[in-house]
Amino acid sequence: MAAIVFDLDGTLIDSAPDIHRSLSVALEAEGRPVLTLDVVRSFIGNGVAVLVRRAMGVSDLAGDEVHARMLARFMAAYDAAPADLTRPYPGVAEALAGLKAAGHKLAVCTNKPEAISRAILASLNLAPFFDDIVGGDRLPERKPDPRPLHTAFAALGAPTGLYVGDSEVDAETARAAGAPFILFTRGYRSKSVAELAPVASFDDFAGLATIVAART
Ligand SMILES: O=C(O)COP(=O)(O)O
Ligand SMILES: [Mg+2]
Prior knowledge:
- With about 220 residues, the protein is of the alpha/beta class.
- It has helices spanning about 15-30, 35-40, 50-55, 65-80, 90-100, 115-125, 145-155, 170-175, 195, 210-215; strands spanning about 5, 15, 85-90, 105-110, 130-135, 160-165, 180-185, 200.
- Helix 1 packs across helix 4 and helix 3 packs across helix 4 (about 65-80).
- Its cofactor is Mg(2+).
């Protein structure tokens, strides 16, 4: 049995289209043009506050007041339809079911706020696979600080385990936590696989069980 923790955005689910839709609402309310899906995707990974800051940075917007207003509009639009355009990557449910059947314990550790993360996973029928879902607002610290990941392993009753993610934030989090990092290569990373130096990588969830079996 192993404890296996998963990142959410860009790892289990392709959530960029709903994030793009919600950010567009916030930008349009400020009279700014919407950004492309590719640009928005590149802003995901450090939580919603950083996402909005990055969008402001390329939209000639500044100031804490604007940030607070945009963040509130973004979250209202996102909360209204959290999984409208969001889908699990192919094979995710089957892979999670297989890992559970093999006796592994699963959790999620994401920088996305916890309530909406839980709502999305529930609406995609993925929530029952996880013993805990640690969101970016559970602790004062967010990934790449190792504490959220430590919290997820602790919830599984394990001192450590495997961490599966898609980005440089996840690679750094795993390194800081001393956990082996497994990279899903089709997510939202901006660095090469070599730069992220995972212990293993996969581009199809059908391949995850073999990787886990080799390391447990
Ligand atoms: O909210 C984000 O920016 C990213 O979330 P993630 O940690 O699930 O990739
Ligand atoms: Mg991610």
